[in-house]
């Protein structure tokens, strides 16, 4: 095909199919819509936007095993009867010696949280023959007592149904 024929066919196709021009305003609106929808999943699924109880567990001894968080609404079974007495349980993987637990759909009330570092992933806090924990443990709203776990009343906090951020440090 000669160069002149190629130019003719390009010219004919340009004439046969007119180009539709879109105004700058319409293009700007379309670009803004794309940017908004591109960031929508990050905004819609961000943990802090959902009302609930957010628990941060920093400075975990190692990244072996899981972190188990149990939220209790009464003294019954607190803090060691996770499976039978906790209102909700969250088990999370440890990421770089840190973990986070999140409790949603929790009605306003008074609660206490117990956290264990289940290093061997057997679902319980392992203790020695004297009953002293061999794995990390921590509680909401309190420091660790030398003589055992705190009472529910010492570890409890009021929750109003909105976002609340807690930090629980583990004792080993």
Automatic annotation (TrEMBL):
Signal peptide stretch: 1-46
Record InterPro entries: DUF2141 (IPR018673)
Pfam families from the UniProt entry: DUF2141
Keywords: Signal
Name used for this protein in its record: DUF2141 domain-containing protein
Protein species of origin: Geoalkalibacter ferrihydriticus DSM 17813
Taxonomic placement: Bacteria, Pseudomonadati, Thermodesulfobacteriota, Desulfuromonadia, Desulfuromonadales
């Amino acid at each position: 095909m000669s160069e002149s024929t190629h130019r003719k066919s390009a010219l004919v196709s340009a004439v046969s199919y007119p180009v539709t021009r879109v105004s700058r305003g319409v293009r700007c609106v379309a670009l803004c819509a794309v940017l908004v929808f591109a960031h929508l999943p990050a905004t819609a699924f961000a943990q802090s936007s959902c009302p609930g109880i957010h628990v941060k567990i920093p400075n975990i001894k190692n990244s072996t095993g899981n972190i188990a968080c149990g939220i209790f609404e009464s003294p019954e079974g607190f803090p060691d009867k996770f499976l039978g007495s906790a209102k909700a349980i969250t088990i999370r993987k440890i990421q770089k010696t840190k973990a986070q637990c999140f409790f949603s759909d929790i009605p306003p009330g008074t609660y206490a949280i117990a956290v264990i570092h289940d290093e061997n992933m057997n679902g319980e806090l392992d203790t020695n023959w004297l009953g002293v924990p061999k794995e990390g443990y921590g509680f909401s709203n309190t420091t660790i007592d030398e003589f055992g776990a705190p009472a529910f009343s010492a570890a409890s906090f009021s929750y109003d149904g909105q976002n609340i951020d807690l930090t629980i440090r583990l004792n080993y």
